[in-house]
Amino acid sequence: MLEVEGLRSRYGRIEVLHGVDLKVSQGEIVTVVGANGAGKTTLLRCLSGVQPVSGGRISFQGQPLTGVPAWKRPARGLTQSPEGRQIFGNLTVEENLRLGAWNFKDERVGKDMEDAFQMFPILREKRNLAAGGLSGGQQQMLAMARALMGRPACLLLDEPSMGLAPIIVQQIFDVVESLRGRGVTVLLVEQNAFGALRIADRGYVMENGRIAMQGAAAELIADPRIREAYLGI
Amino acid sequence: MSELLQFLFSGVTVGAVYALVALGFTIIYNASDVVNFAQGEFVMLGGMITWFAHQAGIPLPVAAFLAISITAAIGVAMNKLAIEPARGAPIVSLIIITIGASIFLQGAAQLVFDKQIHDFPAFSGDAPIRVGGATILPQSLWVIGGALAVFVGLWIFFTRTLLGRAVLATSNNRLAAQLVGINTNFVMTLSFALSAGIGALAGVLATPITLTAYNVGIAFALKGFAGAMLGGMGNPKGALVGGFLIGLIEALTAGYLSSQYKDAAAFVVILLVLFVRPQGLFGRKSTDRV
Lengths: 233, 290
Hints:
The structure holds two protein chains of two kinds.
Chain A: E1 2-11, E2 14-24, E3 29-34, H1 40-48, E4 55-60, E5 63-64, E6 78-81, H2 93-100, H3 108-119, H4 121-125, H5 136-149, E7 154-158, H6 166-178, E8 185-190, H7 193-199, E9 202-207, E10 210-216, H8 217-222, H9 224-231
Parallel strand pairs in A: 3-8, 3-9, 6-7, 7-8
Antiparallel strand pairs in A: 1-2, 1-4, 4-5, 9-10
Helix pairs in contact in A: 2-5, 3-5
Chain B: H1 2-32, H2 39-55, H3 60-83, H4 91-112, E1 129-131, E2 134-136, H5 138-160, H6 162-172, H7 174-179, H8 184-210, H9 217-231, H10 236-257, H11 262-276
Antiparallel strand pairs in B: 1-2
Helix pairs in contact in B: 1-5, 1-6, 1-8, 1-9, 1-10, 2-3, 2-4, 2-8, 2-9, 3-8, 5-6, 5-8, 9-10, 9-11, 10-11
């Protein structure tokens, strides 16, 4: 579904992705784990088209994404819940969700919003409040729900567990896992390697802008090098 | 008593013009957080282009329509040529760019048109309407009506339409707006077209009363800015109320103190607002949690 070959990207003169290869198949949950600064977020920014690509290619559902502006990508089925949530703080929770479905005007928008409220009941309670006043965990739920309102075939999730209490992290990961049943393919970027690998089918380990290791999630969790470097066991 | 009423009438008239300018500020500010100091030049262009087209033999309504369309196009060009290339620059730099654009438009108007003061006929004649011992010009009613109509239109746009919310979303978080599929460049183009068009409408409505010349823009921009600040930057309701209040304060200052202090009134208001209530009358304090 999503194929990345030899992807390079730079901030000014400094190259941060040195040729990344990655593949996500229909219905999979794939995770990219790695330390802070490894290039995980840059990778997702390239996939969404908000970061210039200096080499390599990205194709999605068989079509190249090169030259497709960021704002056209959600309509192709690729949405992102970005790092740091990036919710619209001055708009209400409901308005945030409605804007997530910006490309759609049919009745399914209301149904999808109902689904989102079922997934995260706290959002229903706060639907008419300014999103900027939500707690960090609630903002993360809103960011994910907003990305799902865009009816993605593939959802890009950047650090959904960052800065959240363990109980909320568990709830977020449960929801990500449940997306499998909804037919949404997920590319999950995480520093919380253990949590991410536990729900993923396959995983990639990123180090200094390169893929250092890849394999089935269960194998990666069992790998002694990973356990030492990322899982702290 | 009739004296006070007369001052109020003239205050409301000029206040309606300031309200229109302030509403113009609101749109661009909502889309980009930029205070567009060229907003006053749009008012000038609306008046000058209408005058120019009308004296060339074009009927007044057509001339007015032309002026609004051309000014909207100039607003779009300003965004494409001056603002968009500087995307990513700090807001202060962008605001300085708008001051530069303002000076450029003023100079261009001086070259293309001339340095004289101009006007064109009022829409519904010049016979003053008597109300309670004071008089009001029919054109004043046009200006007031225009300000109210634009306010209602914008209020509906920002609170009832998805596109209006997309404008707010773009200013709040451009990255997130792109990630949900909003074409943020189009939002900016639309905002500049709307703002410039509203500014030009103010010029068209006000010129039969206030007259126009290549250099009237700055005063409109500063007074409209004072109105927008007083009401709360970015809030259409604030822009409307703030604009009318500045007009009233100005007219009462001119009437009861001295017309020499008239122009100072707006600046005293800006200072007071900044000291006492920086978010304005209707503005909300920003309350983002991180």
